[in-house]
């Protein structure tokens, strides 16, 4: 299964983290922006070209030490079709460098519409009788609050194409509790119930390391709930946002891991992308600044959880 490949990359690099690629023009060094504007003018084409050059520099600097990247689709969509092209090119470039790619799209629909999302991001599109990948990510974030009708169309694609999904369970934003912490008639919270659904949905696509192809998004800003869900969803791999810029640290994310140091991949976006601005280093050193921050994050987390082992 897809998460088997991710787990193997985590063990190989001894690094349970993912670098979020959520670029804005404000994050990009001026020499990259100036070059794009000189070539394309002040256009969406220039913005998309700058994003791609910036992303490639980050990927080149990170690919041997960070197992995965997570481009957030919205940051590309806001630059029009040119930005969406950069998303596809970023996915392809990262995969060519051996990285596991999680597209953060939080897609949510039912029936044939959800099948179309699954085909676009994880599967192969039929183009005049030929099958081709439109985006080609390894995993996709999805919103499960339409229930099984919104998840089932993804499962067949995940099984056939060796891909995975991460379902929103307990998100890192401050107001998540307004809905997710509410108690249901069963006495369980909404997020606990969603975690149970993830365990059930993943039963047919189990991997060899004890985790299914249906993961869960559980935020670092709620460490108690992370520990609770790790216990109650033992076969569900966690994607954990909220580290770094949102306030989460190594102690906060530690409850997400199992006794082998597996079970979670921790995301940092701005902390890595904008490390050169925080360091106030030369802008031409932006990619190496990202690498330094990624190593610092890896070392901080691994010092807390210990050696990562895969027992297949």
UniProtKB/TrEMBL annotation:
Reactions catalysed: orotidine 5'-phosphate + H(+) = UMP + CO2
Stated family: Belongs to the OMP decarboxylase family. Type 2 subfamily.
Stored InterPro entries: Aldolase_TIM, OMPdecase_AS, OMPdecase_type-2, OMPdeCOase_dom, RibuloseP-bd_barrel
Pathway linked to the protein: Pyrimidine metabolism; UMP biosynthesis via de novo pathway; UMP from orotate: step 2/2
Active-site residues, as the UniProt record annotates them: 106 (proton donor)
Organism this protein belongs to: Hominenteromicrobium mulieris
Gene3D superfamilies in the cross-refs: Aldolase class I
NCBIfam families reported in the protein's UniProt record: pyrF_sub2
Enzyme class: lyase
Entry-linked PANTHER family: OROTIDINE 5'-PHOSPHATE DECARBOXYLASE
Protein name, as recorded: Orotidine 5'-phosphate decarboxylase
Highest rank taxon of the organism: Bacteria
Pfam families: OMPdecase
Domain annotation Orotidine 5'-phosphate decarboxylase: ranges: 16-293
EC number, as in UniProt: 4.1.1.23
Coiled-coil residue windows: none
GO BP, one annotated term: 'de novo' UMP biosynthetic process
GO molecular function: orotidine-5'-phosphate decarboxylase activity
Keywords assigned: Decarboxylase, Lyase, Pyrimidine biosynthesis
HAMAP family membership: OMPdecase_type2
């Amino acid at each position: 299964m897809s998460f088997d490949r991710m787990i193997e990359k985590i063990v190989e690099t001894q690094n349970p983290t993912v670098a979020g690629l959520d670029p804005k023009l404000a994050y990009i060094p001026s020499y990259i922006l100036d070059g794009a504007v000189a070539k394309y003018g002040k256009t969406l084409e220039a913005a998309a070209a700058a994003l791609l050059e910036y992303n490639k520099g980050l990927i080149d600097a990170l690919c041997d030490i960070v197992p995965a990247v997570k481009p957030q689709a919205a940051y590309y969509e806001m630059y029009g079709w040119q930005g969406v092209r950069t998303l596809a090119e970023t996915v392809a470039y990262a995969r060519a460098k051996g990285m596991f790619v999680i597209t953060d799209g939080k897609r949510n629909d039912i029936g044939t519409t959800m099948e179309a999302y699954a085909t676009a991001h994880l599967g192969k599109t039929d183009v005049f009788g030929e099958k081709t990948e439109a985006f080609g990510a390894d995993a996709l974030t999805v919103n499960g609050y339409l229930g099984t009708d919104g998840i089932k169309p993804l499962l067949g694609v995940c099984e056939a194409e060796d891909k995975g999904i991460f379902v929103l369970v307990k998100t890192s934003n401050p107001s998540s509790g307004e809905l997710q912490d509410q108690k249901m008639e069963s006495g369980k919270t909404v997020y606990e119930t969603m975690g149970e659904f993830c365990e059930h949905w993943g039963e047919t696509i189990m991997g060899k390391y004890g985790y299914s192809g249906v993961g869960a998004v559980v935020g670092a800003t709620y460490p108690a709930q992370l520990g609770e869900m790790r216990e109650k969803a033992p076969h569900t791999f966690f994607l954990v946002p909220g580290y770094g810029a949102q306030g989460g640290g190594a102690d906060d994310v530690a409850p997400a891991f199992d006794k082998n140091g597996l079970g979670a991949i921790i995301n940092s976006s701005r902390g890595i992308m904008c490390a050169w601005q925080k360091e106030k280093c030369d802008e031409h050193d932006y990619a190496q600044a990202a690498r330094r921050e990624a190593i610092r994050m890896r070392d901080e987390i691994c010092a807390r959880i210990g050696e990562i082992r895969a027992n297949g």
